[in-house]
Amino acid sequence: MSDRPIRRLPRGGRARGRSSGTGIPRRALPALLATGLLAGAATGCGAIPRDAQGPLARASGGTLRVGLTENPPWTEVAADGGVSGSEVDLVTGYAESIDAKIAWTIGSEGELARAMRDGKLDVVIGGLTRDTPYSTEIAPTRPYTEATADDGSTLKIAMGVRPGENALMVSLERYLAEQEGEL
Amino acid sequence: MNRTEEETGQGGRGEPAPETAEASGHDALPEEQRRILRRAIRLEWISLACTAVAVTLEIAMAGQSQAMKAAWIEDALALLPPLAFLVAVRRIRRRPHAEFPYGHHRSIGVAHLVASVALLAMGTFLLIDSAITLIKVERPPVGLTIVAGHAIWSGWLMIAVLILALTPPLILGRMKKKLTEPLHDKVLYADADMNTADWSSSTASIVGVLGIGIGLWWFDSAAAILISFSILHDGGKNLRGALRGLTDGRARTYDDAEPHPLIGQIEERARDEDWVGDAVARVRDEGHVFHVEMFVVPGDGRAVTGAQCEDLRAALRDVDWKIHDVVIAPVAEIPSTQAFRG
């Protein structure tokens, strides 16, 4: 560097630091990419958002895999293994809306979180709250209703979806909002 | 660009130093530069205000969200360069005295160091944060938001907020970069780089959200990692420049791209004097202005007087306002371990 001769600039000339000419500046790349993505999205790459692994497409006309942890009045499990509760009704209604049958898995929240991580479930119900400790494995939907806990605090009740499956998430959230009269 | 700004640019076509020999700090700058400095100070206050508002909003919105936490830590780092700049321009107002015979111009160098470290920290933070997300395969959930009875994918809202957030640094950064050259201000230069880092990482986030929208969960982190390399590059460049300046490296241009052309010009000016046989300068950057030690070998058999040295000092200061603190050292031959020809 130091042995380079001193470069005199012509009068009114400018040093480097400005990208004139035709080359695409490196920093414009993200913007170009964004434009490309937007254009791609707009011209029929399917609706946004899409799932990371496509559970909504798989469940539609097929099977929705729902994990259930017992938590009355949201979810109850009878002695014969039959399930009921307000969230069971809601998720059954949702499955009908996308023409899906439900495959139930019953377990504790921790067991369901592991099953979710291993890709064996699409949705988890059981009166989950937004601040579930398993939020790395189970992404809570936007709260569809509120309840009051024993200690008087307000609980924001949500269902759980596999993280990153945003088409499924948005579709379920939309159904819940419609059922609760928000939409 | 108006004519005056072109003239004051790099290449030593600037105004001569102001008359007062004791001038320091803001007084060392000619009227044009003082006007630019006032403008820069105004821009930095606006920057500070914008960033402070953004950080406050992000802290309020952060809650449990790891992503928002990352966003405000990142933005809080963007507060450092403007703060360093504003503190430094206050300090350089002080005149030289017995304890600080060189004046306080070096404060600019210290602020440049602070700004470049902030830039490096931001790049490092972004890189590590994104790499961890990638390695842990954290697929970001982005669901629905209901605004006034209309359902909208939260990703679109995030993009709207990000576009709002990236606009001030995009505009301010460009405005600052224009001032760095005529003012020869490296803190401002580093801060303009910080603004670039700021808006380009927001752009990366927009790309990331769009990527999530089409089901590519890794897109957000990958875009952030790409941008972090560019931020680290700028941070490293500025850090090298700041350290070089503070450790008395040869004065370089405002962007540290090359040795400053004024060095050659003042040597030529010194050699133009009748009584001077040879002259080589040792020049360091004090921040805005230079400190010059001019080694002068008198021509054959010539005696040197104090008045001649004084005249030469004045003549060199007339070359450009940046030639500020000049010492003439008459010697029998150019000391080869102290002065080097360009």
UniProtKB/TrEMBL annotation, chain B:
Cation efflux protein transmembrane domain ranges (all copies): 46-246
Entry membrane topology: Multi-pass membrane protein
GO molecular function: monoatomic cation transmembrane transporter activity
UniProt KW Transmembrane keyword: yes
InterPro entries named in the record: Cation_efflux_TM (IPR058533), Cation_efflux_TMD_sf (IPR027469), CDF_Transporter (IPR050291)
Transmembrane stretches, start-end: 43-64, 70-89, 110-132, 152-172
Region (Disordered): 1-29
Pfam families linked: Cation_efflux (PF01545)
Cell compartment(s), UniProt: Membrane
UniProt entry tagged with the keyword Membrane: yes
UniProt superkingdom: Bacteria
Keyword entries, A-Z: Membrane, Transmembrane, Transmembrane helix, Transport
GO annotation, cellular component aspect: membrane
Protein name per Swiss-Prot or TrEMBL: Cobalt transporter
Organismal lineage: Bacteria, Bacillati, Actinomycetota, Actinomycetes, Micrococcales
